[in-house]
């Protein structure tokens, strides 16, 4: 049965459930067997909840399976999301005994939709890093080449979907931590507008920049998942009380007349030639289908990463101050060094960085007076080897984490919805991905354009050669 299930979309699995070709328990058992077989290599999961999942699946009736689009569907969540009664480790020794008392908002919504949690996925400790390297739980690897990084910080969520261990997963995205690993593993990764999906019940890293994100195989599955987990939670100061749209409704609309912004600065610079060539083919396809390409100029990006870090580190320090006093010796040296950096950032610098972010938001928002979407590469590099420290491109040395997220970080500061999806294969046998960015709360247009691209066989990629 594994051959017929492992790499199916949620939509196909739901059809199989409704037709009685497979039961919810059989789905759980199939994915559980794959987790047992592939987790030692993939390092995707930290904690599994197979017994609980099997019990939940056994209670689902045929009528239940006609409910939500995720009824009876297994999924996983980055181990920052609280799942009632399950440890939330955050990828750290420091949280070895932190048992969640209630579900995070997104988990509660999935539970209400009768989705079935198979467990908690690996991550860069406390989401502090873009490579996914973790000294406690191991480093999640790339399904297309296990000698390469899955990317981070939502490394385990990407590996879980890419290795065929679950059909969908939740992650968090503070600087590209969903979009970048999705891009490197040939998946769809979506960071909705800030406030669209509440972060309540998610271990914080940086309140200003944290977003809940989604990883799926297809745009349709992403649209379904977004419809389920979106909402308003007054306990989350960033949450926005706005009607949740039925995102799948927009998918089959054409893209004729869509104005697509092509950045004239930063986003097409210092990137792998094959990635840039793939984006040219995407542009040609959009034009052939009635879209109009228009140049746009972004704000000066020279100091944007510094601005992001100047906000991240003091907020991370604030979030962890109580734990540091009690169990600082259980934090990794890498994360402690980052928190120490937070202590060195003056209030004056933090305030200036927050003002820069507001300026970035205003200036970027004005671009959408001219265009409906913005198209960029998702990453400037393909997945690099595990252990890589720096990448050299056009004579410039760049830390690997900075390279992985160079094209994603800015949109965490602005808060615009941004989606990564595969669009080609590199000659080295690794996925290439594009990024689509939309107006605030216009996830519908982002998903519509992404679906139009996905429909073309020109941009489909092969599945990883994982033993099924």
Automatic annotation (TrEMBL):
Gene3D superfamilies: Amidase signature (AS) domain. Residues 26-447 form the Amidase domain. Pfam families: Amidase. InterPro entries: Amidase (IPR000120), Amidase_CS (IPR020556), Amidase_dom (IPR023631), AS_sf (IPR036928). GO terms for molecular function: catalytic activity. Belongs to the amidase family. Hydrolyzes indole-3-acetamide (IAM) into indole-3-acetic acid (IAA). This is Indoleacetamide hydrolase.
């Amino acid at each position: 049965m594994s051959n017929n299930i492992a790499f199916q979309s949620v939509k196909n699995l739901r059809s199989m459930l409704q037709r009685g070709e497979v039961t919810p328990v059989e789905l759980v058992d199939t994915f559980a067997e794959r987790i047992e077989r592939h987790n030692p290599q993939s390092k995707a999961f930290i904690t599994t909840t197979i017994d609980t999942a099997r019990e939940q699946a056994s209670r689902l009736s045929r009528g239940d399976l006609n409910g939500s689009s995720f009824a009876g569907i297994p999924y996983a969540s980055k181990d920052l999301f609280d799942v009632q009664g399950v440890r939330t480790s955050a990828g750290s020794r420091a949280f070895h005994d932190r048992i969640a008392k209630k579900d995070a908002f997104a988990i509660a919504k999935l539970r209400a939709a009768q989705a079935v949690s198979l467990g908690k996925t690996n991550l860069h400790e406390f989401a502090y890093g873009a490579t996914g390297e973790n000294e406690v739980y191991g480093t999640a690897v790339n399904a297309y080449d296990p000698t390469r990084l899955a990317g981070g910080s939502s490394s385990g969520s990407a590996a879980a979907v890419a290795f065929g261990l679950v059909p969908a997963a939740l992650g968090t995205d503070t600087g590209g931590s969903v979009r970048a690993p999705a891009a490197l593993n040939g998946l769809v990764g979506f960071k909705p507008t800030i406030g669209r999906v509440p972060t309540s019940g998610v271990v914080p890293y940086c309140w200003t920049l944290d977003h809940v994100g989604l990883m799926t195989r297809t745009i349709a599955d992403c649209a379904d998942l977004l419809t389920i987990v979106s909402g308003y939670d007054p306990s989350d100061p960033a949450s926005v009380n706005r009607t949740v749209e039925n995102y799948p409704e927009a998918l089959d609309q054409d893209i004729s007349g869509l104005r697509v912004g092509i950045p004239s600065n930063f986003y097409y610079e210092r990137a792998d030639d094959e990635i840039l060539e793939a984006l040219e083919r995407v542009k040609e396809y959009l034009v052939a289908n009635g879209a109009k390409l228009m140049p746009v100029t972004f704000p000066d990006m020279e100091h944007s990463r510094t601005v992001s870090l100047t906000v991240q580190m003091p907020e991370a320090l604030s979030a962890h101050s109580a734990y540091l006093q009690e169990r600082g010796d259980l934090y990794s040296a890498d994360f402690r060094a980052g928190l120490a950096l937070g202590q060195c950032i003056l209030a004056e610098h933090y305030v200036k960085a927050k003002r820069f972010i507001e300026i970035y938001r205003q200036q970027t928002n004005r671009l959408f007076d001219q265009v409906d979407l913005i198209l960029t590469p998702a990453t400037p590099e393909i997945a690099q080897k595990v252990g890589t420290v720096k990448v050299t491109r056009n004579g410039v040395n760049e830390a690997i984490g900075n390279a992985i997220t160079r094209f994603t970080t800015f949109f965490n500061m602005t808060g615009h919805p941004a989606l990564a999806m595969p669009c080609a294969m590199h000659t080295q046998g690794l996925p290439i991905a594009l990024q689509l960015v939309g107006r605030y709360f216009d996830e519908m247009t982002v998903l519509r354009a992404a679906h139009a691209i996905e429909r073309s066989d020109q941009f489909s990629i092969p599945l990883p050669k994982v033993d099924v």
